[in-house]
Amino acid sequence: MQALPRLSVERWPLFPVRRQGGPGRPLVVGSRGEVVYRGCWDATASPVADWRWGNRIRNAEGNRERTIRMAEAEETMTIMGKEIPRRDFLIYGSAGMGALGAALAAWPFVDSMNPAADTLALATTEVNIGSVQEGQSITVTWQGKPVFVRHRTAKEIEMARGVDVGTLRDPQADDVRVQKEQWLILVGICTHLGCIPLGQKSGEPRGEFGGWFCPCHGSHYDTAGRARKGPAPRNLAVPPYKFVDDTTILIG
Description:
The protein is an alpha+beta fold and 252 residues long. It contains four helices and 15 strands. It has helices at residues 47-73, 86-112, 117-122, 154-161, and strands at 18-19, 22-23, 27-29, 35-38, 76-79, 82-85, 125-128, 137-142, 145-151, 183-187, 210-213, 220-222, 227-229, 241-245, 248-251. It is elongated. Belongs to the Rieske iron-sulfur protein family.
């Protein structure tokens, strides 16, 4: 440790003296200008007072040196074999605890934003298609929307795949709209103004292209659910779905 400079003493008023208006206030200051001791008593200058002041100066200097040595010893600390500044440890530790506290406080709010179990249950619909015969359709509900499930015939599949995709207003090939060619799953909402097209039940009009017909404004859809005539700008939407097994579809 670097040697500390000796203390210097401000000579006025080093020795307590009587002054008009009140007692003197002797100061002991370090070489850097810091006040080491500030005393006050009422006495006249004398050898005894000088001796007392000398002891006070020496004691103050010794205390200062011990304080600095203790501070230097505490500047670093060893963690996992590495010396790190104690100040950095305290700063980072405090910041980490603050971040942890904020995360714990925010967790109930974040968790409340997750959907409830009953809401998640409504997000999917499981459909048993084992009893749907070729050429038949059923309508199920998914998220409040009608979903058409049709078991297509070989003729309907042939009609859907024989279309020149380049002539369609919303070009989509049939094979990108189905996972299994005989099963067509569509959201049963007309893409014009949201009416429900006809064609699910036997005897209902199915339009000029053998698929579905919207009675509201005369849109026609083919056997792949693609818009072919009328004001509908897009094909009937295909919802997300997967085959759980050969007779079960999970929509959503």
